[in-house]
Amino acid sequence: QGSNMNLGEALQFLREYDREASGMCFRVTSSQWNYSTNITETNKRRMLEEQALSAKFQRLSWRRATSYTWTRLPDPIVRRQLHMLAIEGRTALPEEKFNELQQLVTEMKEIYSRARICPHSLNNINYNYRQSGNCDLALDPDLTRIMSHSRDYEEQLHVWQAWRDTVGPPIRSKYIRYVQLANHAARLNGFHDAGQQQRESYEDSEINTQLTELWATLAPLYRELHAYVRRRLVERYGSEHVRPDGPLPAHLLGNMWAQNWRNLADLVIPFPAKSTVDVSSEMLRQGYTPLRMFHLAEEFFTSLGLKPMPPEFWHHSMLEKPLDREVACRASAWDFCNHKDYRIKQCTTVSLEDLLTIHHEMAHIQYYLQYADQPLLFRDGANPGFHEAVGDVITLSVSSPRHLQGIGLLNNVTDEYETGINFLMLMALEKVAYLPFAYIVDQWRWGLFAGDWNIDEMNARWWELRLRHQGIIPPIPRTEKDFDPASKYHMYFVSLVLQFQLHQALCEAAHHFGPLHTCNIYRSREAGRLLGDILSLGSSRPWPEVIRIMTRGRTDKLDARPLLEYFKPLSMWLNVQNRDESLVGWSTTGEDTG
């Protein structure tokens, strides 16, 4: 902070910043879009040029913001905006180092999105996608499909290892330098390290303690799920591959990162004779197209009384993978900072998974639309996990059997106990299995920033955390030449907890009666009003205030109880299924830790 306490000057500065920053944001976002939807060296160069210009502007704005004694200005809105500008620590870096940091981030993302590997065996491919025999298998859709559907132990191992061999080592040195620059920037701005700076966004010095307590509350449910899934994997692969009381090999869980186990449904579904909610084949039978899927998602939001997608969305979004150029296929929602241009980038296929992803990404767009009238600095989620929570809370309703029946994709839905347990198992494979992974990502990253361990033990610490909290081990020995954390974008543990709090609040507003997992807020204007009120605040209020509004005054804290309530029927069922298990949890041997 500086010494300037002139409120009028601060207001004038913020008005100028909002106008100029919005224009800069549009140019930078446009260049990022152009690169992501057409990966060429020319577009990359233009993007970096725009980012460099933005960096100069942000550094000047940061210097002006920190010239004020913002904590003593009388207007709380002004104080909050100046605080947000002041804690943007990267702008404290000298120009040369800031540009280096931007370049590193771009290069790491590029390695991730452009990585290709060879197939395991051409004779072993039984999937419905074009297989040329060349070493050109991309993460999405090729490797994702193999990890989702293959039950060949060696093929899964090959894909798991080859992907990490391709992505990890090239990123390792870049990530080390990134940590150094991020920490340097944070220290220039008064923080101990970049992890502390990231946690500052939560405006709570005890946020890490809260997260640890939340995970301790939720861990027993995860261990029950882990024990049940392990027993089914032993039945499928044998005890020579999966130890009956041990951790799970990371490549057998239907997902490149063992974070989401939903693709194990065929192995672990409790009542196979009862219906499940994967309606992908029905969508194909009814002739669904990607465009029809997006219109269906839009109708969900307008049924709540929320805003439709603007014309620019339909004109400029990338809804399918183009055949004539290389693109980054990871689904994402984009705000071009001009109050009218919002887009989604997605390589959509006709499936339930992609339908849910569309609703998730469109929820981000809805968030953008609702807080569009806020100052630019407040156009963000209430905390770093809020945006993801809003995206996921919509899919809690959309994926429910009652909703899928209501839109004509599922027939003969009943309230039978077995059908409900099947549905909850699918949701647990996605949500509960994700909890420890999301917790670990932040713990590992923050520990590295803080210097709790050295860079020559980054990979070992990563696998120690995964073994301790997730009960997962690598299928082959790993060394410090590997860099396995690099194979995953980060996720927020907070959003996993928060989405169930928000779901409970919206279901109460919709006057839902019955178990929480049966709630569907579709067509509830009351739920839509509450959601609109929450989203329109953006980050203009501290997030505990937003939670208090959301819960009608009951609490202003993160709360694990709605998540436990949602999965209560499944938890009781798992307790019965695991009663003869020698160990609910996992034992660890020297080989595991080695």
TrEMBL record:
Q: What is its EC number?
A: 3.4.-.-
Q: Which InterPro entries match?
A: Peptidase_M2
Q: Which residues of the sequence carry a binding annotation for Zn(2+) 1?
A: H360, H364, E388
List cellular component terms (GO): plasma membrane
**Gene3D superfamilies in UniProt:** 1.10.1370.30
Task: Tell me the residue numbers annotated for binding chloride.
Answer: Y202
Instruction: List the carbohydrate attachment sites.
Output: N38
A single BP term in Gene Ontology: proteolysis
Q: Which residues bind Zn(2+) 2?
A: H360, H364, E388
Keywords, ordered alphabetically:
Carboxypeptidase, Disulfide bond, Glycoprotein, Hydrolase, Metal-binding, Metalloprotease, Protease, Signal, Zinc
- Tell me one Pfam family matched here: Peptidase_M2
Recorded catalytic activity of this chain's protein: Release of a C-terminal dipeptide, oligopeptide-|-Xaa-Yaa, when Xaa is not Pro, and Yaa is neither Asp nor Glu. Thus, conversion of angiotensin I to angiotensin II, with increase in vasoconstrictor activity, but no action on angiotensin II
S-S bridge residues: C118-C135, C329-C347, C507-C519
* Note on cofactor: Binds 1 zinc ion per subunit.
Task: Tell me which domain of life the UniProt entry assigns to the organism this sequence originates from.
Answer: Eukaryota
Cofactor names: Zn(2+)
Active-site residues, as the UniProt record annotates them:
E361 (proton acceptor 2), E361 (proton acceptor 1), H490 (proton donor 2), H490 (proton donor 1)
Q: Which family does it belong to?
A: Belongs to the peptidase M2 family.
- Protein name per its UniProtKB record: Angiotensin-converting enzyme
Which species is listed as the source?
A: Zootermopsis nevadensis (Dampwood termite)
